[in-house]
Amino acid sequence: MAHGAGIGAVNSMSQIAPAHEGRELGIGDATLIKALAEATGRKEQAIKDDYNEEGDLGVVAMASRSKQKTMFQPAPLSVRPTPPLITSPIPAP
Fold this sequence. Notes:
The protein has a domain at 5-67. The chain is elongated, with a radius of gyration of 21 Å. It starts with a helix and ends in a 26-residue tail after the last helix. The chain is an all-alpha fold and 93 residues long. It has helices spanning 5-12, 29-40, 44-54, 57-67.
């Protein structure tokens, strides 16, 4: 699973529509905790402990993601110049 892939599912807590419509994905807490552990590199038990303390798996997911460290500093982003825009109309064939 790619890093962060489970975060969106955790934030939605299996709901894909407003609660009054009664539609859910049918993904249990255990599956979401496992996905969150895999996506963030944390142990499942640590996530369960935080979940029991916080009561909201979405909040635990955001906190887990914010504590996640990168293995190396990424290269700075750069933007290459773009070609000039065509300002004259293109003749019709």
